[in-house]
Design brief:
180 residues, alpha+beta, 7 helices, 4 strands, globular
Length: 180
Amino acid sequence: MAARRAEDVRALAVLGASPQHLDFIEHSYNPRDTPVAPEAIAPVLAATLDTLAPSAVFLPFGLANPDHDVTHRAAMLVRKERVERCAWFCYEDGGYKHIPGLLAWRVAQLFRAGVWPTPACPRVAETTARKMEALGCYPSQLLALEDDWAISAKLAAPAPEQYWSLAPPPKGWEGLSESP
């Protein structure tokens, strides 16, 4: 975990950001590879967000990676209580968004939960080159992703990173969330 956090510090420095690490460990370091429960993460995440008072929160869609999934679910628990405090967005998890069906599955889950995920174009300052430099700071993770998913080709593809706004359905469209 110390090595992973050091990678994180280096990658965020490339982007001019600083980490806010919470005191949880990745699922692979827990007995039986068990992820931390979202209900355990949510109060700590809520307290951290209360301290930071962000104008927007960006969370992973939580595709394939168990830690991304519990982070997504914990953040959605926090969002439920703080939806009005700031804008909420999901981002497509790098190479994981290319795994067939996973992104569509998560979008469908959000619709059924009464959340209206809509592609959005928030202003972002990073360039592709800076992002790729930052990603290069994660050798402990990139090797496995390369072996499992040929991640470098997917990350180098000309498809831009997509963000999705998480908002209530437009007035009059609420019933679509309940469609089978």
